[in-house]
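Reviewers asked in the last cycle whether our approach scales beyond single polypeptides. To address this, we selected a multi-component target totalling 349 residues and predicted its structure end to end. The input consisted of the following lines:
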Amino acid sequence: MTKPVLIVGGGPAGLAAAHSLATVGKQSIIVEKEDKLGGAPILSGYAKLVPTGEWAKDAIGGMVTRVEGEDAVTILTNTKVTEFGGSPGDFQARLSNGDNAQVEAAILCSGFTHFDSVNKPEWGFGTFQDVVTTTQVEQMISSGQGVRCPSDSRKPKRVAILLCVGSRDRQIGREWCSKICCTVSSNLAMEIREELPDCHVYIYYMDIRTFGLNETKYYWRSQEEFKVKYIKARIAEVTSDGEKLIVKGEDTLVKRPITIPFDLVVHAIGMDPNVDNPEIASTFGVDLQEHGHIDAANCYGAMGQTTRAGVYVAGAAMGPETIDDSIAQGHAAAMAVLSGLKEAIGKTA
Ligand SMILES: Cc1cc2nc3c(=O)[nH]c(=O)nc-3n(C[C@H](O)[C@H](O)[C@H](O)COP(=O)(O)OP(=O)(O)OC[C@H]3O[C@@H](n4cnc5c(N)ncnc54)[C@H](O)[C@@H]3O)c2cc1C
Ligand code: SF4
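The resulting structure, written as structure tokens, was:
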């Protein structure tokens, strides 16, 4: 009898991998450390996703429902893998709930950790209540509450969105680009303007990386249709005059200091490596990349392979990634598992 495939993490990548395996009748076990599936889009309450405009609860919630309905998928929430040994086709996993599982392969879909803005104290988060993160704004929108200043629930008249918070910042050891936050921020800016037409929204940027077709759909549309203003700037600090938040910095196009008052300041937070990655690397015996993301041994011929045979990886566990690419990588890793098992059977036949 064949054994199941172990999937670590029930976010978009893990859900896609489990669904792919189930379609060909292959059993899998999703081990998810939180109390529900869905990964960051569900756990952090994202609103409308880019680039489709679908609500996260519908798009990713739909993936959760689909997997929950698959007989071939066993779901274990509030669970982690504590030990993992053996070889491809015959691995043994010990789980934090006390169970043991015999599995043929593993796919690490353990995702990322949101940057904690308290690590950028000069930009006001943790000091001023009305300095928030993009995830908080997503939650304000997805909960139906609308965009408000947390200090007194008023509707903001002026909002600043600061890009690259916890990304492209060597001073705090995060030099990678988080790939999606420019597009997410342009989208949120348009949503704010739609909900609060009298509110002025400014985006402070180093460079704009609304890659591919998102340039038209988000960058240009937000300016031309929604009158969002973009300022190329180096931000020095976010302070308060007692009434308003003050964003101080230098406009790097005209090379002049700028000081502008706002009601709400939003940090476009980046994607850190999953804080669990050192533990995952040691449990599964896989390598990490320079900044702590899980290493993929092969990009082309056998996508999703890690440095350990029989252990695969997909999605934001490998570095900042979009949802659609994480899903594609989840499917690809499932395919790689199946072709790896077929090769192993071929060798022993
Ligand atoms: C503010 C913000 C907004 C975003 N909006 C969009 C958007 O609109 N469109 C888009 O394409 N992308 C967006 N992204 C990116 C998106 O969040 C990721 O692409 C996506 O979540 C990656 O999916 P994943 O399954 O790889 O990882 P995750 O979503 O991080 O899921 C990983 C899962 O693994 C679990 N896990 C972690 N460690 C362990 C462990 N040790 N054991 C067991 N389980 C574990 C986690 O609890 C989680 O459920 C956004 C990112 C940010 C920061
Ligand atoms: S996507 Fe944009 S905001 Fe995010 S790190 Fe890259 S340049 Fe900065």
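The longest helix spans residues 323-348. We regard this as preliminary and will revisit it once experimental data from Aim 1 are available.
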